[in-house]
Design brief:
- By secondary structure, the chain is an alpha+beta fold.
- About 20% of the residues lie in helices and about 35% in strands.
- Strands 1, 2, 3, 4, 5 and 6 form a six-stranded mixed sheet that branches.
- The relative contact order is 0.23.
- The model has no long low-confidence stretch (mean pLDDT about 90).
Length: about 130
Amino acid sequence: MVKRLASNYLQKKLYELLIAKSLTVLDVVTTDDVLPYVIIGEDREQKNKHSKDEDYKIIETSIEIFTEKNGFKEGKTIQEQIYNLLDESSLTLDNFEVKEIEMDTYSNSNSKEFLVSGIDLEITLKQTS
């Protein structure tokens, strides 16, 4: 079996799910971009150290939601929408089976221009082909 980078398949699927919900997903933010928008964060892929099976991978990534600085309601609403999108049944990937999804949510107001809400993901996958 050819070894595949699961993170490539995951990022593609996350993008498809988010734009299907009419969310603006950006890779590079410019000064012309209008809030709210979503960014799929950096990822880290590693072998699952708790499994003897070499085909198990763990991917850590985040989805960040940027909104106007007028309260967290908009960001939390989008955060909840994304949270409900991401379960084992909707997150089907070519060549991989989703075994487990762990999610942590956060919000902060450290910027003067916008608010950030997000979801940190840890996804365990098994390569199937």
